[in-house]
Every structure is written in C-alpha cells, then in structure tokens.
C-alpha cells in the first residue's frame, strides 16, 4: 500500500478523484447531468488506467508523451462518428434523451464524449498487456499472410462493409471488423508497424491484450451507462437477449474486433504524422522489452 501511495502518479490521482465525483453524479444527480458528466467520468477512467500502467511499468502513454496521448483523444472523435454514421443504416443503438439537445449541443457534447474511446481502450490494453496471464501467447501460432493475404484481407474488408450497408439486418456484426480488415493491409503497404509484425513470430499477446483491455473498458461503458441519463440502448437483431446492463451478452463479442480497429486506425494516423507508436503497443511490459520491441519493429520496416 505504501508503494502505491508513493509511486502512483499525480494524473492517476486526478483520475480517481474524477471517478469518485462523477460516477455518483451521473447515476444519482439531477436528470440530464450525463450531458456533460460523461466526459469527466471517462477522462477519470483514462487517467486512472494510465496511472496504473505507470505504477506497474514505470512508464505509460501519458508519461511518454502528453502530446501523443492528447492526440488519441482527437483521433477518437472522427473514428466514433464514423460508426455513428454507419449506425444510421444499422439502427443498432439509440440515445435516450437525444431530444433534450439542440443539434449543435449534441454535436459538441457527443464529440467530447466520443474523444475518450481510443485512450480508454488503448490504456486498458496496455494495462492488460502488463499481466503475466498473457505470456502463454508469446510463442503460439505463426501467422504470415503475405502479399496475397494482404490483398485478400483488404478486399474482404470492403466486401464486409458493402454487406453491412446492403443487408444490415444479417451482416451488422461485420461493422466491427470491416475497418480493421481495410486499414491493417494499408498500414503494411505504407510500412507502418502492424499486429502481423508479432504474429509472424508466433506472438499473439497484442491481440490478447487488446481483447482483454477492450472487454474491461466495455464493462465500464455499459455499467456506467445503465443508470445514467441521457443513455444509450440497443436494438440488435437475433441476439437481443441475456442482457448484461443494456448490452446483450453476445453483443460484447463485437468489442473484440473493435479494439483491433482502434489500434489499426491509430497506427495509421500516427504513421502519417511521422510519429512512433511502438511505446503504445500492449505487449510492452517494461523498459527492457520496449527496447527489444523497438528493434524488432525497426527490422521489420527495413
């Protein structure tokens, strides 16, 4: 306990305070407080998780570069608006209380709330990646798709997106995979590090960390949403049963490929800005492994 009090960073304590204040406010405060209370609650989550990563590893996304960490919030806004646009066709989720906003209010406050998606998931993934339980995935199935595999994946992504738009009732789950299938090969072709740089050596820890991290994040999304107002609800064809909070149990499966989309899009944007994303990869467990991983990616880019 003394080590926690001594080593937990100031921004982590700020995150804890934000959660302690805005969790009860979002659930028990005046109706409509979630309009503006969602963002500080989830900023608190992001800062707390980043603080826990720093406590475990002596390094975290925020401590490495506040500029890059802030950029994650910016990237998150258009990324989630993309899914909001696709949901106009899917009609899988709705916002109770939307009518209490003007269009301008909704655009601004929703964008602020959407900004926390990417840092929350990637922070949780890095925290998950520091756990020993993922170590068995370090030497597993070797997967090297090659050029033909990359082209097939790229085309499959566009076909999946087309199927979602043409037949949303039957192919709606593919919305959580199509973006990844399209962007991952593009990152390969542009020479940016991808998850395949690890799977080609049989290392699946990045996938495991992203999956575990996004499920933890998804649990808090759904839990904190349940007693809030405004809030979202779901209408999912065929699987709208066995709900955990508002989300059908099988719907949580959509979080898994969504985490891959988040990683791929972030890697693409950072690569186009000329920024190194290696310090954000979820498998990096400590400073020595960070150096090793950096060398491995450098070799793969050569």
Characterization of the model:
The protein has 302 residues and is mainly alpha-helical. It has one domain (2-301). The chain is 67% helix and 4% strand. The chain has 14 helices and four strands. The protein has helices spanning 2-7, 10-28, 34-57, 61-64, 66-90, 103-114, 117-129, 146-166, 168-171, 175-190, 196-199, 205-226, 255-272, 287-301; strands at 93-96, 231-234, 243-244, 247-248. The strands form two sheets. It has a two-stranded antiparallel sheet with strand order 1-2. A hairpin with a 2-residue loop joins strand 3 and strand 4 (247-248). Helix 5 packs across helix 13 (255-272). The longest helix has 25 residues, at 66-90. It is globular and about 55 Å long. The N and C termini lie far apart (45 Å). The model is unreliable at 285-291 and 293-302 (pLDDT under 50).
């Amino acid at each position: 306990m003394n080590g926690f009090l001594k080593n937990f960073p100031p921004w982590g304590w700020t995150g804890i305070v934000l959660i302690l204040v805005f969790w009860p406010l979002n659930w028990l405060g005046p109706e409509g407080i979630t309009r503006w209370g969602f963002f500080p609650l989830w900023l608190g989550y992001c800062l707390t998780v980043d603080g826990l990563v720093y406590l475990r590893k002596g390094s975290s996304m925020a401590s490495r570069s506040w500029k890059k960490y802030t950029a994650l919030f910016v990237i998150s806004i258009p990324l989630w608006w993309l899914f909001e646009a696709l949901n106009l066709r899917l009609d899988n989720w709705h916002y109770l209380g939307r009518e209490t906003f003007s269009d301008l209010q909704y655009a601004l406050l929703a964008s602020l709330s959407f900004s926390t998606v990417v840092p929350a998931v990637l922070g949780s993934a890095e925290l998950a990646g520091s756990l020993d339980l993922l170590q068995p995935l370090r030497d597993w199935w070797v997967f090297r798709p090659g050029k033909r595999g990359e082209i097939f994946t790229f085309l499959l992504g566009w076909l999946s997106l087309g199927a979602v738009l043409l037949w949303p009732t039957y192919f709606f789950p593919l919305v959580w995979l199509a973006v990844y299938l399209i962007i991952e090969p593009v990152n390969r072709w542009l020479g940016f590090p991808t998850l395949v740089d690890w799977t080609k050596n049989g290392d699946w820890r990045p996938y495991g960390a992203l999956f575990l991290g996004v499920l933890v994040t998804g649990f808090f999304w759904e839990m904190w949403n349940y007693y809030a107002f405004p809030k979202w609800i779901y209408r999912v064809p065929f699987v709208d049963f066995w709900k955990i909070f508002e989300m059908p149990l099988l719907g949580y499966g959509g979080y898994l490929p969504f985490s891959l989309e988040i990683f791929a899009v972030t890697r693409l944007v950072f690569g186009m800005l000329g920024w190194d994303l290696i310090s954000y990869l979820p498998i990096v467990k400590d400073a020595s492994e960070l150096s090793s991983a950096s060398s491995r990616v450098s070799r793969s880019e050569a």
